[in-house]
Here is the input.
Amino acid sequence: MNTNTFKTQDFWLSAYLISCNVPLQRHERSGKLSTFWFEESPRTQGLVDSYYKLTARIEPSNFGRSIRSLKRVMYDHAPLTTTTGTNTDVKQTEGFSF
Here is the structure.
């Protein structure tokens, strides 16, 4: 796995990144708290910056699909993580895509 990752617990930011075609690399859920990992890149950082500066633009139905997909990752396919020592990786699920 790429060691240069962007990690967030912000659900809405994660849905925005997914709707901008930034692939979700990993998800971990601990109780009610989810953490999402994305590949770190200048593009990802630019999208994060525009999100927090309130200048982000996205097509609404695409954003809605991303929200539903992210909720599926969080709830329908639980648990999506396996823990071996200190390493937690996403299990691949057949037929699932954003």
Summary: Confidence is low (pLDDT under 50) at residues 80-98.
